[in-house]
Amino acid sequence: MRRRIRLQTRLILRVTALLTSVVGMMSFLFYGILVSAVEEQIGKRALSLAKTVAADPELREAFSREEPWRQIQPIAERARINSGAEFVVVGNEHGVRYSHPIPERIGKEMVGGDNGPVLLQGKSFISRAVGSLGPSLRGKTPVFDDEGRVIGIVSVGFMIEDIERITWGYLMRMLMFLVPALGLGVAGAVLLARKIKRDTLGLEPDEISSLYKERNAVLQAVREGIIVMDREERVRLINQAACDMLSLPSEEPVRGRPIREILPQTRMPEVLRTGETHLNRVMTVRGKELLVNRYPIREKSGKVTGVVASFRLRSEMDELNRQLSQVSRYAEALRAQTHEFKNILYTLSGLIQLGSHREALDLIHRETEEGQDLIRLVVKRIPDPWLGGILLGFYSRARELKVDLVIDPDSRLERLPDHLPRQYLVSILGNLITNAFEAVENNPEGRRKVKIYLGDTGGEVLLEVEDSGPGVPADLIPSIFEKGFSTKQGANRGFGLAKVKEVAEEMGGYLAIERG
């Protein structure tokens, strides 16, 4: 059945169904809005007419006569005829009619049960109720005497049946536009389906899906070198990045050749046979170390029909890891600053609720002075935004950890040489401060101290971090810069100082450790 119903037919049917649904929903929505708008306008009209009648001096004066209905009935009927309302009923403070379109009902109580707010509270309002003439939308307002007392009520109404007749007429006019619009939409659906059929070169969805799966596998690593191999173990696609990394000629001479001729040691045929995915496998090609991912390409039946391999130079990945480490430190510093600020806010809130306003002011002044002193020192002595930012961030982190972090007042680092990358200096400083925090974490509060000095005197840049921790045993000092070596417990340790030493030496510097 799916084969018999072509793509073009399915598009026409689905677009037509969608347009029909949209037109139907719009019709119901517009009808609801229209009914609300018409009822609102007619309700306001009824209330306005009721207020006009209630303010008539002649009508108010008639309430003081022995037979008030003789004067009030003509006034009410005249207003009803001139306005087109269904009824204009005037009653006394007990709800007894003094006027009605049917004279025989004068002297009887008003029907509907909605006179309370008018007679008891003197309020004007619009209501929807069933009266003696049937369901109606009515506006009600009180009649006041010269002293402001409620002496009567005026009720002006329009029948619900008439309102529905008006709104139905508007709906019919609206449908006169919506139905042609629906026909136009169906015609557009036909034209759209034909154009899509041409643009897809007559391919059906299952054929397009097969092509899409292959291209989708390629797009998984768009910034990396990419090679696609078919079931015959031949290169079907290779991008220029892969040619550059593998020192191959341009794409055209390589495409169609057996994969073993291009990469003799490749494991892509193994993925073709087993269907397994290889992730982050290390591979050396022509002296270059690569990180390789290999993905099988499968049909709907699950059969593997090809393999796509994506890879990047490992040196690039190491650089990304360094940048990510730097960003992580920034994020941690900002988190600490936010946490500390929340603690201060909670303390201020508690002091204010307890009425300790002077203590709250003292806390604000103290926090402001401490923060301003540090900012002034950093701005004046260490104007570089990268280094200043990480110092301020670690200051907040130190307060959270109850560590006394001191920036040496003699620090001065006016201008960094252009050949020293700032991200490397931030990475060095971040690793050293983090290690110092960990070194003092077991000390009791009051003895957790870390001191930082930054200087550029003597033609060299000096970054010095000193802590009050237990120090490093003399016999372990030669080993602490080795990757994977750590005096602390836990996984993923022993990389910070090794990275610091590597980066420092890469920039022509050195790393030293001594007793403080």
Q: Mean of residue pLDDT?
A: 79
Distance between the termini: 83 Å
Q: Please summarize the sheet with the most strands.
A: 5 strands, antiparallel
Helix-strand sequence: HHHEHEEEHHEEHHHHEEEHHHEHEEH
The count of strands amounts to: 12
Which terms summarize this structure?
single chain; 516 residues; alpha+beta; 5-stranded antiparallel β-sheet; 4-stranded antiparallel β-sheet
What's a quick, concise take on this entry?
The chain is an alpha+beta fold and 516 residues long.
Characterize the structure shown.
There is one protein chain. The protein is an alpha+beta fold. It contains 15 helices and 12 strands. It has helices spanning 7-54, 57-62, 69-83, 116-121, 160-199, 205-219, 240-245, 251-254, 259-262, 268-274, 314-353, 357-381, 385-400, 422-440, 496-506; strands at 87-92, 125-131, 134-144, 150-159, 225-230, 235-238, 278-285, 288-298, 304-313, 404-407, 449-455, 462-467. The chain has a 5-stranded antiparallel beta sheet. Strands 1-4-3-2 form a 4-stranded antiparallel beta sheet. Strand 2 and strand 3 form a beta hairpin. The protein starts with 6 loop residues before the first helix and ends in a 10-residue tail after the last helix.
How does the SSE layout of this entry go?
Elements: H1 7-54, H2 57-62, H3 69-83, E1 87-92, H4 116-121, E2 125-131, E3 134-144, E4 150-159, H5 160-199, H6 205-219, E5 225-230, E6 235-238, H7 240-245, H8 251-254, H9 259-262, H10 268-274, E7 278-285, E8 288-298, E9 304-313, H11 314-353, H12 357-381, H13 385-400, E10 404-407, H14 422-440, E11 449-455, E12 462-467, H15 496-506
Parallel strand pairs: 10-11
Antiparallel strand pairs: 1-4, 2-3, 3-4, 5-6, 5-9, 7-8, 8-9, 11-12
Helix pairs in contact: 1-5, 11-12, 11-13, 11-14, 13-14, 14-15
